[in-house]
Amino acid sequence: MIPIHDIAEVHKKELKMNQLVTLTHYDSSEAHRHNYFEFFVFLKGGGNHLIDFVEFPILDNSIHIVAPGQVHQVKRELDSSGYVFIFELNLFDHSKEIENLLFDHICLEVTEFAPNYHFDSAFKDELILNVEKAWQEYNSKEPFKNLIVLNHLFHIILHCLRSKKSAHSDNDLKNNDVYTSFRRLLNKEYKTLKKVKDYASILNITEKQLNEILHQRTGETVSTLIYKQLILEAKRLLNTGIPAKEVAYELNFQDPAHFSKFFKTQTGLSPSDFKNVHE
After folding, report:
1. Interatomic CA distance for residues 157 and 183, integer angstroms
2. Who's near 86: CB < 8 A, 6+ residues apart?
3. What span, in angstroms and rounded, lies between the C-alpha atoms of 86 and 14?
4. How far apart are CA 121 and CA 152, in angstroms?
5. Model confidence band, residue 168 (pLDDT cutoffs 50, 70, 90)
6. Full-model pTM
7. 12-50: burial string, b at 16+ Cβ within 10 Å, e else
8. Which fold has domain 176-277?
9. Please, where in the chain does CATH 1.10.10.60 lie?
């Protein structure tokens, strides 16, 4: 059963920071999900990080972003070390570029929008300096320490943003506004809106136009992306220990049998078989 960690006791714009110290035994935290961002900075790598059922290696000088709702499990080795920043999306509502980057991590699957960033030696010293200065400030009692910590995190995320931007050509960004609007709408409404015409209507374009834009960007149809979003959330819910019947109702399927048939068609496994594989 995967627990859901809450940040309800923390003010909306509070930034927390923890140190990932060298371990005295092999660490394999339980899989869980939470309603806030975890921004891992691994200075010394080793091990793997499972994020939404995909495994990513933990490398030296790397960053892993875990978005709200994602299921993850850190399996790092004995001598790995680093830091983790904990915050909510609106911490960066003053910077639309960074807010958009973080929102993409919420909306897009990890196979499409990778949650890991690896920086070469050119940025190594700068990364170490920023994160260690942030940790020093976080543990101080100096005035404005939170703003200084935020400034260091802001600087690090900008490098993540730059690496994403440089990886996309101008052709990739064509019709980007429509694509982004669709993915955000899908992330918000996938439980209730399951037809292409619903999304096209809200976005004020034809179904054909929406399919063409999404196919050009992803190679997939609108229906396929809607189904993938439903399956991803179904997997997450099943792994929290929720019975398939309740998952079906949570995702607004007419009945559990319909949900089970849909799940098996999309994954090749029944909901119960999937739960057994991932227990």
Report:
1. 22
2. 7, 10, 15, 16, 17, 18, 36, 37, 38, 39
3. 9
4. 19
5. low
6. 0.85
7. eeebebeebeeeeeeeeeebbbbebbbbbbbbbbbbebe
8. Arc Repressor Mutant, subunit A (1.10.10)
9. 176-277
Q: The tokens 């996938």 sit on which residue?
A: 190
Residue 62 pairs in a beta bridge with: 42, 118
Pick one of 2.60.200.30, 3.20.20.70, 3.40.980.10, 2.60.120.280 as the CATH number of 4-166. Answer: 2.60.120.280
54-57 and 81-87 beta bridge pairing = unpaired
Hunting for tokens 């119960």 — which residue is that? 272
The edge-to-edge listing of strands for the beta sheet with 72-76 is 54-57, 47-51, 72-76
Question: Nearest Cα to 211, choosing from 242, 177, 244, 182?
Answer: 182
Question: 131-147 in b/e burial notation, b at 16+ Cβ within 10 A?
Answer: beebbebbeeeeeeeee
pLDDT tens-digit map of 79-137: 999 999 999 998 998 898 999 899 999 998 899 899 999 987 778 899 999 999 999 99
State the pLDDT at residue 10. Answer: 47
Contact 145, 138 (CB under 8 A): yes
**Coil vs helix vs strand at 26:** coil
* Tokens 């200075």, located at residue: 43
Residue limits of CATH 2.60.120.280 in the chain:
4-166
Of all residues in the chain, the percent with pLDDT exceeding 70 is: 89
Q: Which residues, listed in sequence order, are joined to residue 240 by a DSSP beta bridge? A: none
Listed in sequence order, the residues at least 6 apart from 270 whose beta carbon sits closer than 8 Å to its beta carbon are 260, 263, 264
Residue closest to 203 by CA, chosen among 234, 225, 170, 180: 180
More confident residue, 82 or 279: 82
